[in-house]
Amino acid sequence: MSLKYRLLALDMDGTLLTDEHEISRETVKWIKEAVRQGVHVCLSTGRAFKSAYPYAQQLELATPMVTVNGSEIWKAPYDLYHRSLMDVSLVRQMHALAMKTGAWYWAYTVEQVYNRDSWSEALHQTLEEQEWLKFGYYTEDEEVRHHILMTLQDMGGLEITNSSPFNLEINPLGVNKAEGIKKVCHLLGLDMSQVVACGDSLNDLAAIQAAGLGVAMGNAQQTVKDEADLVVAGNNEDGIAEVIRDVILRQE
């Protein structure tokens, strides 16, 4: 059987994973069937490699991965293909903004994740010695979140998305999951028209718009649903199994 779609790019939280951060048995079954039939399955996540890789192991995937919203592309497990670093001066500005607004914040380096509880004075004095990938804010105060967003947009040089309605995720400008998946396509000799990209949040939007088929989960943010070609069941109702069974592997 000739397949129209050869790469399935999967967001993790709110998409591949249930709210309990597990992959359902049905979804595991259909992902393995897709791989058996020649579909490449790529995790495309805001998570760091260390946090995402155990799920790739569970699914027995050896294909490229997009992590930290596209700041890192892995050719294969532990084989880094591309990395985009954030300007340290921007990290300093974003940290100052977090302190000013009182929002919860976190930041990814290539080694680990820091947050408001673990951000020490020693770290602050040695920011230039770290390699930074992503910064994030979380606040349920809409006014504060809007103020942070407006300030970030004025700073420039940033790619601003989210992974929930209450947070903001910031990568270097031009770094997003769509660009990451394009690099994966280059590695695999595929075209973006052969990609199915699935997600639920604004950090999936660029990929959903750029893919041959953009899929929003039933639990996705409305903006994502509006831009998607297809809306499937939610992350707790085996939406990914539905995509594979009814679209990618469906025989006319």
Automatic annotation (TrEMBL):
InterPro entries: HAD-like_sf, HAD-SF_hydro_IIB, HAD_sf. It comes from the Bacteria. The keyword Protease does not apply. It comes from Paenibacillus algicola. GO terms for cellular component: cytosol. GO terms for molecular function: magnesium ion binding; phosphatase activity. This is Cof-like hydrolase. Keywords: Hydrolase. It holds the Pfam family Hydrolase_3.
